[in-house]
Write a structure and sequence with these properties.
The structure is a homotetramer of 198-residue chains. Chain A is mainly α and 198 residues long. The first copy, chain A, has nine helices and no strands. In chain A, helix 5 packs across helix 8 and helix 5 crosses helix 9. Chain A is elongated, with a radius of gyration of 20 Å. Chains in contact: A-B, C-D. The structure holds a DNA duplex (21 and 21 nucleotides).
DNA sequence: AATGAATGAGAGTTCATTCAT
DNA sequence: GATGAATGAACTCTCATTCAT
């Protein structure tokens, strides 16, 4: 469970296990995932999994924890690249929409995996996705500075704005002829008309 | 499998089976659902389930098919109450948002159940939710009549608009102090600013 | 778990399971006993065992409970046949020794099985074997009536007297050329010389 | 496997392994004993056990062999302290009973360990406990010299006499308020009345 | 010689499915 | 048609044993 004190070979095996687990959990779900197949795909023996994770549920918990940390980092990375604080609002929407999109694209199996959190070992409660929190904060700032309409519920709008991109994302994934940029454009446009103060 | 040739008692048993199945699948998922418990809750013997459905997967397929038909009907009912065709556009958005909301509220287990479609017998491919189709059609009509902006992708927008309400819906469900009408107001407002032609 | 409400066929299967279990537990012990082999020897499927006993430990508990009831009955039967209360003491010893011997002979796997009680489901604590209690009571009566020496500890002597027969029994079992009556004779003789008052 | 050619450090490790093994086998039994725990308690790695003993069964065999040698020595030590050959018979019984008692007290885990011999590597057949052999020999000598009754089967009596002490021993162990000397007194007294020639 | 991570066969247990009643 | 006892394949998890370090 601790990444401390592991040889490179061990760390690599842990990664392989987590990677194989991720694929199986995301595509099949918790119960249908067979540890024997996970082990085979990870190139280790079943017992090796149990050297690191004490049960299937703990394996999921570990995976979710790692995932969440990654998502948070990825989202801040994506948002950060635009130096968002200094960007005025119509453009800022495009940056946020783009960041959500990129994060979701980088982890397309995230919704499927988060849906499994009920099976995880107790410790890992489903955490609120970081992205929605950031959106809400951006909205509040925009409202305070007068750039955005004051007559909306920031939290609810954050959820709605996120759901918008997520849903569009799903349509894009299912329909490979579409360009992902369409989402950014449509979303930024929607945000601007919907939320700008003027 | 055929609703033909069934006595009232038999039809009633089929209903009880599907109802119990629905509860179990929605709250536990596919694999964790035990047919023995479904049978007990339906007040029949396990074997009786197999007289009507040839496997657990087929039982799910049957349930999903019935569900979809119901959702479609419910959505048209909800939209229809406003005589939507005659309603001008800013108000029409509120009607649609309200219909989506009502339909979702009436079938809160729908997302959980639809998520199981991968387990269903092959025949039942995941069907497009009827609501999104209706939205798209409404948008196309609005665009054609000049009420709505022509520079948007109707299909993508339908998905985004639906995702918006769905996501808000989830926030409402998790936060019981909020009033569902907030969603209708916020959504209709967002749709109007985002999509109206002017 | 309840013998009530079982068809003859079911009762017969339960017996077969318990019989096969007994053989395996007695000859191999708890852990080495495989339920798959028990099932095979009982002529049922593994799952059938679990219809009646919720775990391997519960199966053992059930077996021990049945065994104890049987032993107690057998011992009282054996002692009872000689109308022991009316028999004077030198002969009474022979009756008791004979009863212990018969009981032990009828259940030669008893010590091996009782030794497993630590593995049984919690409810079944190891009960004191009935035989020793009866011996002690016989000794007290003999002492009170003056037939037996008063300067011995009845309880300790009961244990010693029982250990004597049990140990001899083991030697007899291991050595098939010996006649079991030797034990009765030797034991009754030993008891008489050791314990009679005169 | 050979005690030859071992450095003091190695010999010490072997001892630690056997000691830990003994505790585990005696308190838990064969199958439930985990070599990983034995290794941990012995302060060595699992692999180190396999440098000395080729399997779990062989480890048990080795332990039993050492144990038997120890018991034999202990019994002769205990008997020998009384210069038994020269002691006349009524007293000789007390010495023997005392020796059996002492030996059993010094190795209270012996019965539990001997019971495992079925699991031991084939080579190690269950060995006759040395004490019974010595008893038998003492009885034969007593009979030959006329000190003891000639009309008893020396071997059977040896078993009975030993079972007597062993059974009393168990009662004493379970009942801590009793004094162990009671056993010696009761046993010697029983032996005398039962077996002396007069 | 010593280590302990890795292995994988095999255990107990569950539950969809069957079929005699 | 309805039942539910019976089935046995397949799951998760354990641990004696091996072997690269």
């Amino acid at each position: 469970m601790d990444d401390q004190d592991l040889s490179p070979g061990q760390r690599q095996k842990s990664s392989a296990i987590l990677a194989a687990t991720r694929t199986h959990f995301a595509t099949r779900g918790f119960e249908p995932t067979k540890l024997s197949e996970v082990a085979r795909d990870a190139g280790v023996a079943v017992g090796t999994i149990y050297l690191r994770y004490s049960s299937k549920a703990e394996l999921l918990a570990e995976l979710l924890a790692e995932l969440l940390a990654g998502v948070e980092a990825a989202f801040y990375d994506a948002v950060g690249t635009g130096d968002i604080g200094a960007t005025p609002f119509p453009e800022r929407f495009a940056l946020i929409a783009s960041a959500v999109l990129e994060t979701a694209r980088a982890q397309p199996d995230l919704p499927a995996l988060m849906a499994l959190s009920a099976f995880a070992a107790p410790a890992t409660a489903t955490p609120k996705l970081a992205m929605i929190g950031v959106m809400e904060q951006q909205l509040r700032e925009g409202i305070k500075t007068g750039a955005l309409r004051p007559d909306v519920d920031a939290k609810l709008v954050a959820h709605m704005a996120h759901g918008m991109v997520e849903s569009a994302m799903r349509e894009i994934m299912a329909n490979p002829t579409r360009a992902p940029q369409e989402i950014v454009q449509h979303s930024a446009d929607a945000y601007a008309r919907w939320l700008l103060a003027s």
